[in-house]
Amino acid sequence: MNHRIVQVEPNSIAEELGLRAGDSLISLSGRPVADCLDYQYLLNTEYIEAEFETQQGERFIAEIDKDVDEDLGLIFETGLMSKKRACANHCVFCFIDQLPPEVRASMQFKDDDWRLSFLQGNYVTLTNVSDTELQRIIDQRIEPLFISVHATDPVVRTKMMRNPRADRIEHQLRILADGGIHFYIQIVLCPGLNDGDVLEDTIRTLSKYRPYALHTAIVPVGLSEHREGLYPLTSFTKRTAAAMIGRVERLMQGQEEPFVQLADEFYLLAEKPMPPARAYGSFSLVEDGIGMVRLLEKQFLQALEHTAPCPHPYTATIATGTLVYPFFCALMEKAQARLGINIQVYPIANTFFGGKVNVTGLLSGQCLVHGLKGKSLGDKLFLSRTMFRAQEDVFLDDMTLEQLRQTLRIPIEAVENEGAALVQALAKGKE
User: Fold this and answer.
1) How many beta carbons lie within 10 A of that of residue 256, not counting itself?
2) What distances in angstroms separate CA 402 from CA 107, 172, 351, one per listed residue?
3) Coil, strand, or helix at residue 413?
């Protein structure tokens, strides 16, 4: 496989070799390069023989002496150096199948690529991964991985994922654990499918793979209002969320840092207090919404304690999803007292995905317009950066932050989802 070079970094080995954009990498030390992980693995040596092809079709081999961790200084067409691997499953709970019809095409692509599991923390099912690829993961020490298990019972997992290869998960986990590869686990919990006794059996089975199985995150199924023709599923309620908390707490009783942890959403739905911050250890599952509330609270209160009152009092507005609205109201009361400013919090219903979707990160620009237009918003509106595309000021429905500013006619600041960042933003005033 040839990998086309799009940029050569200045003062790099590649520049010394005379390589240019448009040339291609053919192999390293006689081996073809499958992707970016293969590339980094093969580069991890003091001497390599790299084969290149110029734009004119001339091939040459460069003998390179370098430091073990020294890069060549090449930028390729894609970060993966190959196409993303598409999902081969048809999961009954897949959120992409529940998107509104008008969403952009990039949101509709279903990836299930184990390389992105390592590089970005994406959860993957392993249904499109062969034993040969598992051995490559072991040989190249590619860890930790993030694996969507959902159920270890082969019949239940196959039913949920509608893929006959879904029944291989225990075999795959055993290969990884025997090879010394660490992995995190996710269970998307669907009432009536993989909860109850099935869940307890799954937890007992996964526990066998410790210490290589690091933690198990249980998140509730997310259901939008765009489910016509899809498998009938139900959401968790206050009562069923409370029952799930009780079941998992009994299973994990006596463990200092539980192997299984529930998403914050269960506690917020059940209106039960979150576990203390110490129960989340290093907050390794915060990207799954586990411990996110406690971490934000801890960061916020620590920063607030060391922040002086705002020199110019003003009225700030914070817009959140309906689920965390009570939490933010309580937190902002403390901020008002310390900073000497007025803070109002608005819960925003999700009109884009539907009322059952209640988290802040899935609010669209349309939701904010619908929930805030015509209301008294004070001097400045603060939004969580989780509402936006990565590295962009664009909402899920393609509305831009600037368009929202023009519509609501108010200064708006997008703040990172981190407690100290929010304190700092509130304290600096409306300027």
Assistant:
1) 7
2) 22, 47, 20
3) strand
Residue 105 has pLDDT above 70, yes or no: no
Structure tokens at 357: 């979707």
For residue range 248-271, what is the model confidence (pLDDT) as tens digits? 999 888 777 789 999 999 999 999
What is the mean predicted confidence (pLDDT) over 324-349? 95
Tokens of 66: 């370098």
Q: How many CA atoms lie within 13 A of 96 on its CB side?
A: 14
Q: What value does the mean pLDDT take over residues 47-69?
A: 93
Q: Are strands 47-53 and 24-28 parallel, antiparallel or unpaired?
A: antiparallel
Which tokens in the block code for residue 182?
């660490």
Phi-psi region of 254 (alpha: psi -120 to 50; beta: other; left: phi over 0): left
Of 175, 170, 195, 183, nearest in space to 259 by CA: 183
Q: What is the mean pLDDT of residues 329-347?
A: 95
89: left (phi over 0), alpha (psi -120 to 50) or beta: beta
Residues listed for the chain: 431
Q: Which helix (H) or strand (E) holds 205?
A: helix 196-207
How would DSSP label each residue in 296-312? HHHHHHHHHHT-PPPSS
Question: How many Cβ atoms are within 10 Å of 98's Cβ, its own excluded?
Answer: 20
Q: CA-CA distance, 425 to 318, in Å (whole number)?
A: 11
| Crossing angle (nearest 10°) for helices 238-251 and 196-207 | 30
Q: Is 273 helix (H, G, I), strand (E, B) or coil?
A: coil
In which residue are the tokens 């070079």 written? Answer: 5
Is residue 79's pLDDT more than 90?
A: no
Strand, coil or helix: what is 318?
strand
DSSP 8-state code for residue 347: E
Structural Rg of the chain based on CA atoms? 25
* Structure tokens given for 78: 């894609």
Neighbours of 180 (CB within 10 A): 10
Q: Phi and psi of 280, rounded to 5°?
A: -95, 5
Task: For residue 366, give the H/E element and its range.
Answer: helix 365-372
